[in-house]
Specification:
The protein has three domains: 2-71; 80-184, no CATH class; 193-292, no CATH class. It is elongated, with a radius of gyration of 30 Å. With 293 residues, the protein is mainly alpha-helical. Helix content is 75%, strand content 0%. It is built from twelve helices and no strands. The termini are far apart.
């Protein structure tokens, strides 16, 4: 009832704006020709409303067409640019979904629908939970030295903003979403998350390739290879996301190289170990890159 009433008020505001602007234009025209200010007749009022209503609707259609023409571009929407890669985007979106499930107490189906469905009604339950998280955060922040996000009393403001933007992304237009990203610094947060994930993913892929070839590297040696600090390697190897990406890359590389090169390698020498076969497969793959490009 309240929402219907609010929409009626919005329509009334639009109609009022249409008529008021037209009334001013007509009055100014009358002044210009020396007729002075007078009340519009019923006929003039009807005509003014009709003319401005037509202009209003045409302007609205023009705006919609312009936005949709921009939206049909083949490039990725600008609000996805901070994610960098599709893998980083998927990783971040999956992390948001897990927070909604574990922290918010929602099912995985509800979380998925809330961040992917374009109907506003599907987002209300998660939005109510986020508002409560924000309320808890504000109350805790009012007390000195509480550090609510670090103590996990409440979600951080950045995480609340990130999830809220996820809810809006399948409803709003590109520029509107980007505006809210930039206002809330979510674009910078997502870029940072993406850069960290891409670095972790590259490390996981490298370690998977090394293991297939029978090479085991300690923390310092691997840190030197990846040009990072040993603490970064230790942190990666403790991260479940690293293990997940490691397993993924190991399977992909293993399957591809077996299918493409193992028959050829075994014909060259039947007595090679599996690790030696993979070392030779990686060599052959490297030699094939110019042709693949």
């Amino acid at each position: 009832m309240l929402r219907t009433g609010f929409r009626s008020q919005q329509s009334l505001f639009a109609a009022s704006a249409e008529f008021n602007v037209r009334g001013v234009e007509v009055s100014r025209t009358m002044e210009t020709v020396g007729m002075g200010m007078r009340k519009l007749s019923a006929k003039d009022t009807t005509l003014a409303r009709k003319n401005f209503s037509e202009a209003y609707e045409q302007t609205k259609l023009d705006l919609i067409k312009a936005a949709r023409d921009t939206g049909t571009s083949e490039r990725h929407p600008e609000y996805l640019w901070p994610d960098g890669t599709e893998d980083a985007w998927f990783h971040r979106k999956s992390a948001v979904s897990r927070v909604i499930e574990k922290r918010g107490g929602f099912s995985s189906r509800v979380a998925t629908i809330a961040i992917t469905d374009s109907n506003w009604e599907t987002k209300e339950a998660v939005a109510r939970w986020l508002r409560n998280e924000l309320k808890v955060l504000r109350e805790a922040e009012a007390k000195t030295g509480t550090a609510p996000a670090r103590r996990k009393v409440a979600l951080s403001r950045t995480m609340i903003s990130d999830i809220a933007l996820e809810l809006l992304e399948c409803i709003g237009g590109d520029s509107l979403i980007c505006l809210f990203q930039e206002l809330l610094d979510v674009d910078r947060h997502r870029k940072s998350v993406s850069e960290n994930f891409i670095q972790l993913d590259q490390a996981a892929a490298t370690e998977a390739q090394l293991e297939l070839q029978g090479v085991q590297m300690g923390v310092r040696a691997f840190a030197s290879l990846m040009s990072v600090s040993p603490s970064s390697v230790t942190r990666w190897r403790k991260n479940p996301a690293f293990r997940e990406r490691f397993d993924f890359h190991k399977k992909v590389w293993g399957d591809v190289l077996r299918d493409e090169y193992f028959d050829q390698i075994r014909n060259e020498a039947t007595e090679r170990s599996e690790a030696e076969c993979f070392r030779r497969a990686f060599e052959l793959y490297g030699l094939s890159l110019p042709a693949r490009r």
